Amino acid sequence: MYKILYKIDYIIQRFITTLVFTFPIIKLLKNIYFFFRFNTSFINATYNVVITNFDKRSALTSIKFKGPCTFSRNIEVDYSGGLTFGKNVTVSDHVTIQTHKHVYENHSIYENITSASSLEIGDEVWICNNVIITNSVNKIGKGAIIASGSVLTKDVEDYSIVGGIPAKHIKYRNL
Predict the structure, then answer these.
(1) What whole-number percentage of the chain has pLDDT above 70?
(2) Which of 117, 129, 123, 139 is nearest to 163 (CA)?
């Protein structure tokens, strides 16, 4: 039953984040759907955004928004392991956020065994274009910037700018 509901939610989100729903009057329907789906009015999603649980539900599966978040285009957010967005988070184009992974050691790949971990994204974080955030990341600190094209595999400190594959600390932001 859960797989059917997941697929329906996925299709609805793909549909309501098409270009048609960027027009002001029709955009209201998208905002209403996100309000009832996630119990928040803090989501500003533009085009082709999917925020869903891509894995089996567990005790960790949840999503929380502490303040306004802007999601640009072509974004997939997985909250299987639990996900918290801080205030004023900006997620740019073509970003993938994963909170689960497939376990393949000592198991058949066919068994489809997964593990999940939680992720907390701090206030005023900017995740630039084409970033992949893996499930090994548990915290992205306040005011951090993840540079374009990065693959984030480790936690990020407050006000840190990271980039690369895998992402490494570049410098701290001047405030």
Answers:
(1) 95
(2) 129
